[in-house]
Amino acid sequence: MISEKDFIFNQNTAIINEGSFQWSAPSNIALVKYWGKKEHQIPANPSISFTLNHCKTITKLGFTKKSDSSNFSFDLLFEGKPKEDFKPKIQKFFERIEVYCPYLKNYHFTIDTQNTFPHSSGIASSASGMAALAMNIMSLEKELNPAMTNDFFYQKASLLARLGSGSACRSIKGNIVVWGNHKEINGSSDLFGVEFPSEVHANFNNYQDTILLVDKGEKQVSSTVGHDLMHNHPFAEQRFSQAHHNLSTIKRVLENGNLDEFIQIVESEALTLHAMMMTSMPYFILMKPNTLAIINKIWKFRNETRIPVCFTLDAGANVHILYPENVRVETLQFIKDELVGYCQNGQYICDEIGFGAQKL
Ligand code: 2P0
């Protein structure tokens, strides 16, 4: 089995003095959630996500060789302007991945990054952002070691992204990604995300995700703190085993196309995630009144129309509405008629399943 040691860079075959790359990487939305982790960003349970298509980070990485290799050196630009407050996160990322990428200290980097969604939307940019940066670093490593295989390139990119932000490892490749060891998913690993290996039912082709922006304010509790509160959480063990079970069920559902069962698992996972937050010590609530109002409207609409629309939640108040492409028109009409009023400034983002990071 592949282990962490296999990802340590040790063969400089080429000398590269300067250059630049640019990659985009998408956000992703978990169906079975990652909540709780061990040391080194190892997940406490496996998770599975849809990769998104439109919500992306685009990052350009410029690099020039420097003579002094004692420190990391980089400039960070956000939408073309220097952004000092993002730098500590990048510094920490470099420190975490240094053992795998010892060449980083040989270069000065210019990291120029932007999102296709508004920064203050409450859509986490850590997944897409860390994934886009990891892809660029792997492009540099590929120049240093041209013999690297494609599989290794993507696996290591996902491993590096994971060390930046856990969920980022699911934003590298594939329209459906599993991260974390699961006995029924071939090739699954705690170290990196893998493409869901089975044939997926046509019901899930171009599956839609409309993201209702309920609250764009800064979260009171970061995800990193939330994950940490799963240590000594009274329901932790049951939750972790439930996630394994739900992943088995959703695997079957993705293969057979049963949308009723899909809805049941996805909504239960979203509410369980928030239940974990409400039952940790200290406890906290990230949903807002409008989050609940939207959920109730979705249930009413689904009951009345039998249209297979469901919701999921991230670690925040925004609501992701998931539905098959063939009910797009009716669902968007429902969103315009009944849900826009619950969104901050009437804002929502129409996204759909996508295919991972792209070199630009
Ligand atoms: C997920 N979330 O599976 C879960 C569900 C949010 C809700 O992973 O500390 O930004 O960087 O590993 O990945 C958000 O947490 O946390 C997250 P770190 P991350 O998508």
What's the alpha carbon Rg, rounded to whole Å? 20 Å
Low-confidence stretches: none
Beta fraction: 15-25%
- In DSSP terms, counting alpha (H) and pi (I) runs of 4 or more, how many helices? 8
The H/E string reads EEEEEEHEHHEEEHHHHEEHEE
For the secondary structure, the number of strands is: 14
Q: What best-fitting shape do the alpha-carbon axes yield?
A: globular
- The helix content is 25-40%
C-alpha end-to-end distance: 33 Å
- In terms of structural class, how would the helical and strand content be classed? alpha+beta
Description:
- The chain contains 8 helices and 14 strands.
- By secondary structure, it is an alpha+beta fold.
- The model has no long low-confidence stretch (mean pLDDT 96).
- It has helices spanning 87-97, 126-144, 150-164, 223-228, 236-256, 259-278, 289-305, 328-339; strands spanning 18-32, 37-38, 42-43, 47-65, 73-78, 81-82, 107-115, 176-179, 193-195, 208-212, 310-313, 319-323, 348-352, 358-359.
- Helices cover 34% and strands 23% of the residues.
- Helix 2 (126-144) crosses helix 3 and helix 5 runs antiparallel to helix 6 (259-278).
- Strand 5 (73-78) and strand 6 form a beta hairpin.
- It binds ligand 2P0.
- The site of ligand 2P0 has 17 residues, from helix 4.
